[in-house]
Amino acid sequence: MPKDTTETSQRGVRHWLSTHRRGLAVSVAGVAIVFVGGVAVLAMLDWNQLRGPVSRFASARLDREVAIKGDLDVRPFSFTPSASVGGLQIGNPAWAGKGQMADIERLDLQIEALPLLRGQLVFRRLELTKPRIALLRDAKGRANWSFRPDAPPKPLRLPPIHDFRIEGGQISFKDAGRQITLDAAVNAAERRGSASAGFVVAGTGKINGAPFRLDLTGGPLVNVRPGRPYPFDADVRAGATRILAKGDITRPFDLGRFQARVTASGPDLADLYDLTGVAFPNSPPYRLSGRLSRDQKLWRVADVGGKVGDSDMAGNLSVNTAGERPFLTADLRSRRLDFDDLAAVFGGAPSQGAGETASPGQQAVGRQMASQHRLLPDATLNVSRIRAMDADVKYSAASINAPRFPLRAGSVRIRLKDGVLDADPLRLDLTQGSIAGQAKLDARRDMPVSSIDLRLSRARIEQLIPIRSGGAAPITGALVGRVKLSGAGASVREAAAHADGQALFVAPGGEIRAAFAELMGINVTKGLGLLLAKDQSKTELRCAVAHFQARNGVLTANRIIIDTTPVLSTGEGRIDLRDETMSLRITGQAKEPRLIRLTAPVTVNGPIVQPKFGVEASGALAQGGAAAALGALVAPLAAVLPFVDLGLAEDAACGSLIAQAGRQGAPVAKPRT
Q: Which residue ranges make up each domain of the chain?
């Protein structure tokens, strides 16, 4: 701007001030008088007269009744304004019924004025005398402490408080959804060494009828700084379950962020649902630890370590609560899995022997199942828990301890979404061979539906059926198979009792001890003589097939064929999953004439877990071979073998059996591709 123009503007301002000096002085004086008068009015104001308007304003903002029954005193003229409120009551929202959410005998507070200019509320002091807090959450998940019922619940976050004191506080908590009740005393002393040093919450209650206790302690709430972590210790006991935590809140009074070292122990992981809302599977007694952290709605447990039953456990997991349902992700592993620990997952019991780990309840279940000769557990599945969350969990075991089975390692990936659980892929590695496939649980309806589709491949008979006679396995050879079943039921036993599907096992070739091969035809003079003489000679096992069709829990033998060089054996019967019994009958026909041969079928009867082998008493003397029946018996093999593996029909042993049936005029169907 040119110099002459600037000077002209300044002269104009001075002229205006000179002309309006009197009026401006009057205006400034008027503003000063109004301000001073306002200050004087506020200073002399009886704030108790504003209890009604303040209560009505707060009631409208919080959508519930707020009342001040005692004195109201406000001291606004300071860099740290303060107020005292006596008899403060905050009611419940309409859906929660009558009663008070908070009833505070006296509330004293002091704030810092300068941070308000930046839009930040900072408490210099907050003191509660005999607060009575009643927190409530109904079965629909609505919480009376949420002042925005239409918004999703958020973790508690208070403004920074430098000096926080609570005297004679009481808090009650009721959660209708998880069946939790708690009544606790709350105190926050000013300094350590007093009767109640630091922050203390101690109370008792119940979870699903079981005793529940909470002990929470923290450092003194004096001189707390927003940038300095606040330490705390927690001890939670719910029945036989116990959780110990030692950590700190990253930013004091912001419960949406904290970290702690946590140790959890108890008789069953499933019991943690009541405390966490996460549907863990049933398990043997456990003791696990890890680093727990929370970042708003994301919970993480890192460096998990410990034992579940007699199996070690390690890995990481997280739970995200931002969606409609909690979403659990986990990557867990065991160096050594004790196989019988898995029984508890399905509602059964681990082994009862010395050194085995099981809870008293699981021991009782194990004794009952053993006395009833049962294999399948009947513990009812809680479908509501399956529907309450989603998950993606990976688990692997580097080694498996299973004395009765030749298991070496295993892995599974479990996905849970919208009430449907898929275990796919599921794999168990054997000493030789593997079991692989998938399992599914559909819990969208009141009656869940379970299904499995498992394939046995490259296995060995002598490992899966470790019978020994004279130091040698009587039967050796490859074994493959497939089991595909589906059934509705609220327990493993009930689902099995309604199962439909089929099961097929094939030994495409191998060797069988000659004495046993002869005894399948019950050649008394030769088979028994060889057995008594401990003869170890072998004969060819050309092909063995056992095919069962399942209908409403009953597996009926469609084909049982055992073809050896001297004898062709065929079988019939059923395995009943409803009462867990079996009844099989195997008849052998010698391929060459024998001088003395008793046609007495071999029987297998009794409980699945403990069947008895015998010989049917009503037999007849007979001569002859099995050539006439071979074609009719073997012809259907070409149709059932592709259920296991398309290549089996062309195996040297089973393939030759099918070819032989064709040469004898049987209508042999070609394998379907």
A: 48-266, 462-472+502-663
